[in-house]
Amino acid sequence: MPTDISPLAPKSYAELPPVTGVRIETAAAGIKYKDRTDVMLMVFDKPAAVAGVFTTSKCPSAPVDFCRSNLTGGRARALVVNSGNANAFTGQKGRAATELTAKSAAAAVGCSQDEVFLASTGVIGEPLDAGKFATVLDQMAASASGDRWLDAARAIMTTDTYPKVATRTAQIDGVTVTLNGMAKGAGMIAPDMATMLSFIVTDAAIDPSALQAMLSRHVGSTFNAVTVDSDTSTSDTLLVFATGAAGEHGAGTIHSASDPQARSFSKALADLMEDLAIQIVRDGEGARKQVEITVTGAASAKAAGRIARSIANSPLVKTAVAGEDANWGRIVMAVGKAGEKAERDKLAIWFGDVRVAVDGERDPDYSEAAASEVMKQEEIAIRVDLGIGRGKARVFTCDLTKAYVEINGDYRS
Amino acid sequence: MPTDISPLAPKSYAELPPVTGVRIETAAAGIKYKDRTDVMLMVFDKPAAVAGVFTTSKCPSAPVDFCRSNLTGGRARALVVNSGNANAFTGQKGRAATELTAKSAAAAVGCSQDEVFLASTGVIGEPLDAGKFATVLDQMAASASGDRWLDAARAIMTTDTYPKVATRTAQIDGVTVTLNGMAKGAGMIAPDMATMLSFIVTDAAIDPSALQAMLSRHVGSTFNAVTVDSDTSTSDTLLVFATGAAGEHGAGTIHSASDPQARSFSKALADLMEDLAIQIVRDGEGARKQVEITVTGAASAKAAGRIARSIANSPLVKTAVAGEDANWGRIVMAVGKAGEKAERDKLAIWFGDVRVAVDGERDPDYSEAAASEVMKQEEIAIRVDLGIGRGKARVFTCDLTKAYVEINGDYRS
């Protein structure tokens, strides 16, 4: 497996300040990898409000089932995440593994099992030996501290080539609150799901229902707007925790997403989610280029979204981007196959600022040299205007390179 | 662009006998390629019955629009096909090019323009210089003969590495009739369309409506059951011509697809279509392995089809096959993302005869060695049983290799 860091990796990682109310620890439990951490524990010393979104897969992993069930309580005391094994399609053994992990975590943290949240990422179908957690969680809970964000982001990586972290601040009642987030992605990334794994923590005081409403509002334009390879994981999990510690400094509790006091927080949350989502695309398996696809003038926003995804998921479009080829014929193809209303003779297509096609044919002023120059960039914007309505959508993806095939041809073995 | 012949190419090509009533010629018109033929003409000296299916793309090519219009007449005197340029997304220039080609062909053959059928394959968006045909069609019509099937199949190739031909016979009123077919494929191949380009000719006497009924009945289980890369072309065209010449030997005219005398022909047609469709998959861009995916026990046939296509189009499944990795976790993923009803704990999965998963988890008797042996073969059968109904479907695909990325990273330039 290639271990080179993606050329699209950030030049430096964001420095995440501590968020009062959460402590973090990582450990090497030896699930699959050697010489690296593979388990991460977050401890909330007081119950945190929690909200989440999960994969739409009809074959979800055992931890996804477990989280969905516990989410109804709206309160979290611990989060346990492991890499190397997804605990998916593991039948009764999978349920037993989630129960054992929850039991061990609850004992280590001193909480009830329905305040524990779990996520696993890695190989599907192999039984997960949760006994390996049981031996490390006690020590982890004791030594967890507030400054381990980057370590945590590293511990949850699989084929990711760099850890993904981001931080924002917002104002509530004039008090500054912090939002820290991490994510892991790389492969099996597609829209219509939450994301791979992403965990966001804030010290704001927010009711679970308000937190869920804000999370659900923003997921469509952020995590659900990225695709690496059109494949949707069994394990996608996005959880947001609000410790409420900022309440002690005068930040009032947000009871509703439509509360004017929630505006700054909601905006910061959306911004943080977009930051993490784009980091996932930039570390797509084998990615060398980041691609932003904007569709305008569609019959509806939904139609625009389907057309944008059809373009973003087309292997022919993605290989053309990899080859730095301004092959707009493949964009036409992808628009045509999306199944949404399109009128060939009203289509216009841009690469960057270069309009390559208009009124259903090549732009008479089209410059191959100018389009080629756009394709050489690291970040490429493709825009399609359907010319028939007001529907808009934006999707982020990456190119499809030989390295993707290489990484995925021998991942399991 | 790699020019090696696919390792899945047939050891030898079928020898196609002449079909009375059709003559064929090829020529090098210099559309795009150097030193090869790129235009093919079929002449029907008496009007042949014709039936067709076309791409479902919302942005079809100019020749597809042209054929759809002429198909209402049900009679053909000429077919002109070129490679190197798809005449798609070429606006008013595209319509002018089809009109000029039809006019030239009609003059060369001595027929009306609405008895001419056209197909173009190659780059999208470049204007097609139909003037190049005008100068060669007269001579082609004069020299066309009955034995040029393999030449014709070569002239319509783009990134195909070998020509695709097949032949069958059938009985009508005790008289043997012949069906000859050719196809080209390689990339932009996905279900829910006709196919790339395929042309079938028979000497049977069949009314256009009966011919269309039989064609439409068989396309679902043959051409629409193959996928190389999930991308649907703007130009997919499948035409069947019946010259009726066998009528002179006593084969009665088939007026209805449900006529008992049509049974042998219909079966031979289905068989021929499957043969050509599988040849397309075996020459998928970069293909090294042929994959047959069978889904059983689904809630309905439609659900089974969607699940089978979700597996067949998954980049992660296809790269695993390329890597000879029995990665059944990715099959579970693809079942889960298909959006159709599935019960994780009733799923069973086979690679060849090796059952790798049952009752929602790894088969207790699973042998990694036996599964690996299956993956080393050139033809791989994957079967999924959903265990919840009686819906069945079968889809053919190929693996996703680095050569696919290589071929498509610089196809246009």
TrEMBL record, chains A, B:
Annotated localization: Cytoplasm
Gene Ontology biological process terms in this record: L-arginine biosynthetic process; ornithine biosynthetic process
Entry EC no(s): 2.3.1.35, 2.3.1.1
Catalytic-site annotation from UniProt: 195
Enzyme class: transferase
Site label Involved in the stabilization of negative charge on the oxyanion by the formation of the oxyanion hole, positions: 121-122
Catalytic activity: N(2)-acetyl-L-ornithine + L-glutamate = N-acetyl-L-glutamate + L-ornithine; L-glutamate + acetyl-CoA = N-acetyl-L-glutamate + CoA + H(+)
Cleaved signal peptide residues: none
Protein's pathway: Amino-acid biosynthesis; L-arginine biosynthesis; N(2)-acetyl-L-ornithine from L-glutamate: step 1/4; Amino-acid biosynthesis; L-arginine biosynthesis; L-ornithine and N-acetyl-L-glutamate from L-glutamate and N(2)-acetyl-L-ornithine (cyclic): step 1/1
GO MF terms held by the record: L-glutamate N-acetyltransferase activity; L-glutamate N-acetyltransferase activity, acting on acetyl-L-ornithine as donor
Keyword Amino-acid biosynthesis part of the UniProt annotation: yes
Binding positions (substrate): 158, 184, 195, 285, 408, 413
GO CC, alphabetical: cytoplasm
InterPro entries referenced in this protein's UniProt entry, alphabetically: Arg_biosynth_ArgJ, ArgJ-like_dom_sf, ArgJ_beta_C
Cleavage, annotated site positions: 194-195
Keywords (A to Z) from UniProt: Acyltransferase, Amino-acid biosynthesis, Arginine biosynthesis, Autocatalytic cleavage, Cytoplasm, Multifunctional enzyme, Transferase
Subunit structure: Heterotetramer of two alpha and two beta chains.
Task performed by this protein: Catalyzes two activities which are involved in the cyclic version of arginine biosynthesis: the synthesis of N-acetylglutamate from glutamate and acetyl-CoA as the acetyl donor, and of ornithine by transacetylation between N(2)-acetylornithine and glutamate.
Family: Belongs to the ArgJ family.
Name listed for the protein in its UniProt record: Arginine biosynthesis bifunctional protein ArgJ
Organism: Hoeflea halophila
